[in-house]
Design goal:
Strand 4, helix 5 and strand 5 form a beta-alpha-beta unit. The chain has 21 helices and seven strands. 47% of the residues lie in helices and 5% in strands. By secondary structure, it is mainly α.
Length: 482
């Protein structure tokens, strides 16, 4: 597209607003005005004799239809039947993705998803499967130790690499080249690093992506329902009043006061930056219904003060209710929206661009259409039970790995971006946030950005998600001179 001599790039302001809100741009929008992305599961035929009226993309597979059909035709077998059938489908989904005439391995984070994929790979292999993990010195972000323990138990040929902030910083300038348009899921960095590590030994790598969406792994699937049951019965007027009351006091003040009280609580009940969390809660309190609550949970807090606000939000699956799956269960509805938008436009974009940047092919067993169609026939209790997600996957994985090796809080595949923006990445960020840009930047509210940057540097607020999206947009724009 950019190579075309007739293409004049112009930023789509509405898509930029979506990006600042979600850290990615939902299809069919793109960062360029007049350019649309092909939605997932669709094809498009362009007839040369109809170039002026090219028509619309056509779906060849519909998650919406699969979800609705699964709910209408549920499987009513026992837990044992479900476990057995699911294991068979998972094994076959992995097995068909092992066909290759080049070296093959797998990413292993130590979480349930990748551990199950590797366990199934190793169970059917006569040789040791090659597995790869990235580690960080920061304890709260490091899964390498858990991955090492699981690799040792399964007997894989395991490779791990601990990366420093400096090594991570070296990746950042190349991100606009890899991701084509602004993209700000900060786990793009470790995904690239583990892909680069794997590419030194294999040509194809399997991953556990999609397991969270398919089998109820995200915390919002558990806490979203609980939160709505706690606040939903209150009139919206009262919830708005409570929201205003919570935000009347600054997060810095609340952090200071509540942190003193937290010293009297056990470590398991203490929270970091409790004031920030209360302000985030305040943002979702006025939600008019469950769907609005989900959309607020999926948004960057405070983004609506960021910059351009379109009069009407462009049509994406998040705003167009006609594209939503008709399912009564709120948890399954959240899962369906994640599979329709967050999975294809964030998770899969992240993995595809990172692996292709190092000439590595990634294969994802959890996206096998037979497995997805089966999962949608199962009741929510097969996903979430006893306050924990992925109950079914836990049961299957426990046949291969002791539960003590994987039964732990979900971490996510991220980096300590909040601390690094105050440390090793600060100089790079400051160069992009320089006041001189005020004269030339027409899309962003620079006073608001500088205020948030200052609060973040002082530790008064944690604006890492918001700031990372701003920085990724600026880095992309600087690289491509748009």
């Amino acid at each position: 597209m950019r190579a075309s001599s007739g293409f004049q790039p112009s930023i789509n302001k509405a898509a930029l607003e979506l990006f600042l809100r979600h850290n990615f741009i939902p299809a069919p929008c793109s960062i360029y005005e007049g350019i649309r992305k092909l939605p997932a599961g669709a094809h498009f035929t362009l007839a040369l004799d109809r170039a002026e009226d090219p028509g619309e993309p056509r779906k060849y597979w519909s998650l919406k239809a699969v979800a609705e059909e699964g709910v209408r035709n549920p499987y009513r077998g026992s837990d044992g039947d479900v476990i057995q059938r699911s294991r068979e489908l998972l094994y076959d989904a992995v097995d068909v993705r092992l066909e290759a005439d080049v070296p093959l391995g797998a990413f292993l984070s130590g979480g349930i998803d990748s551990s199950l994929v590797v366990a199934l790979m190793q169970s059917g292999s006569s040789s040791r499967v090659k597995t790869f993990t990235i580690g960080f010195e920061e304890h709260g972000y490091n899964e390498a130790e858990q991955a090492r323990a699981i690799a040792r138990h399964l007997g894989t040929d395991h490779t791990e690499l601990y990366v420093t902030p400096a090594e991570t910083r070296e990746v950042v300038p190349s991100l606009p080249d890899y991701y084509d348009e602004p993209f700000a899921d900060s786990s793009q960095i470790p995904t690239y690093l583990v892909s680069k590590l794997a590419s030194q030994a294999v040509t194809v790598s399997l991953s556990g992506d999609g397991g969270d969406e398919l089998f109820g792994g995200y915390n919002r699937y558990v806490w979203g329902r609980k939160l709505w049951s706690t606040i939903g019965w209150l009139p919206v007027t009262i919830r708005k009043w409570l929201s205003a009351g919570l935000t009347h006091l600054s997060p810095a003040f609340l952090n200071a006061v509540l942190s003193r009280g937290a010293a009297l609580l056990p470590a398991s009940l203490s929270l970091s930056l409790p004031g920030d969390k209360l302000h985030k809660l305040a943002a979702v309190l006025p939600a008019g219904n469950q769907q609005d609550l989900y959309l607020e949970l999926l948004s960057n807090f405070g983004d609506r003060k960021a910059g351009y606000m379109p009069e009407k939000e462009p049509h994406t699956v998040l705003s167009d209710q006609r594209q939503w799956a008709v399912v009564d269960d709120f948890t399954r509805w959240m899962i369906s929206l994640d599979m329709l938008c967050y999975l294809p436009d964030d998770i899969l974009v992240k993995v595809d661009r990172a692996t292709m940047a190092v000439s590595l092919e990634s294969r994802i067993p959890f996206l096998d259409h037979r497995l997805i169609e089966w999962a949608w026939r199962l009741p929510t209790s097969m996903m979430i039970r006893n306050g924990k997600g992925k109950w079914l996957m836990r049961r299957i994985l426990s046949d291969f790995v002791p539960e003590s090796l994987f039964d732990r809080p979900k971490m996510g595949f991220g980096i300590p971006i909040d601390a690094w923006l105050r440390g090793p990445m600060r100089e790079w960020a400051e160069s992009l946030l320089d006041q001189k840009r005020l004269d030339s930047e027409e899309f962003l509210d620079w006073k608001e950005i500088r205020r948030k940057w200052g609060e973040h540097q002082l530790g008064a607020r944690n604006w890492n998600y918001y700031l990372w999206s701003v920085l990724m947009f600026l880095a992309w724009r600087e690289r491509w001179s748009v």
